[in-house]
Design brief:
By secondary structure, the protein is mainly α. Helix content is 68%, strand content 0%. It is built from five helices and no strands.
Length: 132
């Protein structure tokens, strides 16, 4: 039995983007799709990154341990992956838990741009991991 390829989450997130990218005003349904895409992009990057590090001696929850291990690595590429994953995690937490209209970063409520940024971070992380 083969294991699930977590990168498929990124493919699913990318399928959402063409459906919403041309929107100037993001309605609730579209915002929901963007939030889902951000979350899936994060999990694609997280699961790939988690395979890089041993987190047994690192305190914290699962996600925090992976990010801490990467950010404290002697390897510059691992640190960059950790920093980008930390940023993407913040985006995912806001997308999954923030009840107010999304996002808050000056996009005038345009969650499409936040999704685009999340896809960029996830792509970047996965490319760095593939190059290792």
């Amino acid at each position: 039995m083969s294991s699930f390829d977590w990168r498929e989450f990124l493919h699913a997130a990318k399928e959402i983007f063409p459906r919403v990218q041309s929107l100037r005003q993001v309605e609730m349904r579209d915002e929901a799709l963007c939030r889902i895409g951000i979350s899936r992009a994060y999990y694609a990057a997280f699961h790939a990154a988690a395979q890089l590090v041993d987190t047994d001696a690192v305190p914290g929850g699962t996600h925090e341990r992976v990010i801490r291990a990467l950010k404290s690595s002697a390897d510059r590429t691992y640190r960059r992956i950790g920093n980008d994953l930390d940023t993407l995690r913040t985006m995912r937490v806001r997308a999954d838990y923030l009840s107010e209209r999304y996002p808050l970063r000056g996009y005038n409520g345009n969650a499409v741009l936040e999704l685009q940024l999340a896809l960029h971070y996830a792509d970047s992380i996965l490319k760095r991991i593939s190059a290792l």
